[in-house]
Amino acid sequence: MIEPGNSQFKISKMNEGSFIIENSDNDCAWFTNNFAEFEHYSYLGRDKILGPFCIIVKKLPEENGEFLALLKSKKEDKTTVIADTKKSKKKKPTRDFLLKSLNINTSKQNLKRIKDPRFTQDLIQLEKKLIMKQLKIGVLYCKEGQEDEREIFANEYPSDEFKHFLKFLGKKTPLKGFTGFAGGLDTSSDTETGENAITTVWKGHELLFHTSTMIPISLDDPQQLQRKRHIGNDIVLIVFKEGNNPYSPGTVTSSFNHVIIVVQPVPYKDGIWYRMSVASKTAVPSFGPELPEPPLFPSSNLFREFLLTKVINAERAAYKAVPFSTKMANTKLGLLTNLEHTYGQPKV
C-alpha cells in the first residue's frame, strides 16, 4: 500500500491506445453483419452433444467452391471457411458435407433446411439478446474507518471527494421517464429507487452505476436492503474507500459480487490522485488492462478510460466463471430451442 503524500514513488506511464475491450468476439453479431443482407442458406439441427444448433452458409465470391459457414450452438458461435472444390459451381454445399466440415457427428436427417423468410429476423433478434452492451455496476461509498457492511450501506451523505468521483464516472441522470438502460431502477417515479442515477455511454456500452448514496435510505432498516438488493446483485462492485486502511473484499456478503475494484483518493502533488486495487473470485480469469506499479492515477480522462475498460473487462471475465457461464449457455440454449419450436424440430 502506498502511503499518502509520499513524493518519492514513481508514477508508471500509460498509453491511451493500450486499453482494449476483451472478449469482444462475444459482441460480434456474426449473422447480422455477414449473412443477413446476402444470399444465404439456413439450417436447424440437433445433436446429442451440441443440443439444438443452427448453421448458416453462404457462397464466397471466388469461384473455387469456398463457403463461409456459421455454427451457432449453446457453447459458442464459430465461423469457418469450408471448401467443396468438386462442386464449385453449386450455390450451397450438401448437408452431409456441412456436417462433416463442421465436425458434427450426426446424420443429415437431423439437419433441416429453413426457407421461411422470418427466420432471418429471428436470428437477428437472437443475436441482439446475447450481445453484452449494457452493464449495471455497483458503487459503494465507504468512509474512513468503516469496516462493517451495515455501517457502510447506511452512509447517507457523500463527501466532496466522492461527488467529484461520481462526476468523473458519468453524468447525473433523472430516472423518472428515463428511456435508456436503467439497470433495474424504477423509471416510473422518482421515489422507489431514487431521483437520479449515474450513467454513461462509452465505446458503444451503456453503463448504469448503482450508487449507494443515491438510492433512498431506510431509517427503520439497519441492513438497508433496498440498497443492497441492487448493489449486492451486481457482478462488479466499485468501492470508493476514504482513508488509508485496506478494504476487505468480503465486507459485503454477496454471491453475485465477483470483482471488487477499490478506489482510494490520495493527496499527491497539487491535487487528488487515485490509488486502485482489484480483487476477484478465484473462478474469474484474469483481465486487463494491467495495473501499473504503483497503481496511482491522476484524475484525468486517461484514468477514466482505464477504469471503464477495467470495469467492462471485469464483467466479461466474470461471465466465464460459474454460475454466470452456465446461465449464459442456458439462455442461448433456450433461444435456440425456441427456434426449434417455431420452425420444426429435427429428429435425432
UniProtKB/TrEMBL annotation:
One of its GO terms (biological process) is regulation of small GTPase mediated signal transduction. PROSITE patterns: RAPGAP. Residues 123-339 form the Rap-GAP domain. Keywords: GTPase activation. Gene3D superfamilies: Rap/Ran-GAP. GO terms for molecular function: GTPase activator activity. PANTHER family: RAP GTPASE-ACTIVATING PROTEIN, RAPGAP_RANGAP DOMAIN-CONTAINING PROTEIN. This is Rap-GAP domain-containing protein.
